[in-house]
Amino acid sequence: MDPAEPVFRRIAAGTHAGLMVLERSADEKTKRMRRDIVVDEVRAVTQFLRRTAGEGGARIVIVDGAEDMNTNAANALLKLLEEPPPGALLFLVCHAPGLLPTTIRSRCRRLRLSPLTEPDVETLLGRYLPDLGVEEQAEMARLAEGSIGRALTLAAGDGPAMAAEVHRVLATLPTGQAALHVADGVARDEDSFGLFMDLLRQAIADVVRQGARGALSSHQTGLLARRSIDDWGKVWQALTQIQDETERFALDRRQAVLAGLSLMAGT
User: Fold this and answer.
1) Is the confidence at residue 56, as pLDDT, over 90?
2) Using CA atoms, how far apart are residues 242 and 147, in angstroms rounded to an integer?
3) Is the residue at 140 inside a domain?
4) Is 142 within the bounds of a domain?
5) How far apart are CA 162 and CA 255, in angstroms?
6) In a domain, 17, yes or no
7) pTM value?
8) Are 154 and 124 in contact, with CB atoms under 8 Å apart?
9) Is residue 14 part of a domain?
10) How far apart are CA 79 and CA 61, in angstroms?
């Protein structure tokens, strides 16, 4: 669709009367991003679908991502799936279908979407962000794992800088003052902390995958010289828990980064 089309602009602005997107939102009291899609948000979908389509045609709801729903929200959505209102289409975007309740999966038609290739992501980045350097395009495409949306998010934020920081951390496994310097830089706000931890865990997961395939790069070979594939898998699990608990309970981000770096260095 042409970006100049009025329908395109309304969808992009989130003002199209026939479309509702359900995703994790910020808690009104704490102003922090929720870890789940909660039941009140699904109830808002019910109210939306009871209304007549404002622009004619179908009313469309996109749940992104469906695996983020907590139990109560999933049960509320299940009622809609069991008795969908006339003229309604519900799209459940899900990156981990196994996390959805069986009752929901059984009532959906699955449409598998394959990740884009890195060259395709680079081409799209060149189209949407023409000022982005070629090397940065390649790095963002690699980190995006086939998702142009993730690539654009990384490129528009601190993605290039954080990717470089993760590369330095994996190359040196800093301790002491060097670790403090890293923690001070990446724990300055919630977004930077989350991005750093996401990229760090992604890099370690890539070490585990490539190690199992026997297709390691030179710096990955150095990491496996320090720990086995199984041990790096355990490090990934521990970092995931550290990030989850820090974001869920608003713990000290700086201490969380230091704990993760200490774990990686084996100190």
Assistant:
1) no
2) 25
3) no
4) no
5) 18
6) yes
7) 0.65
8) no
9) yes
10) 15
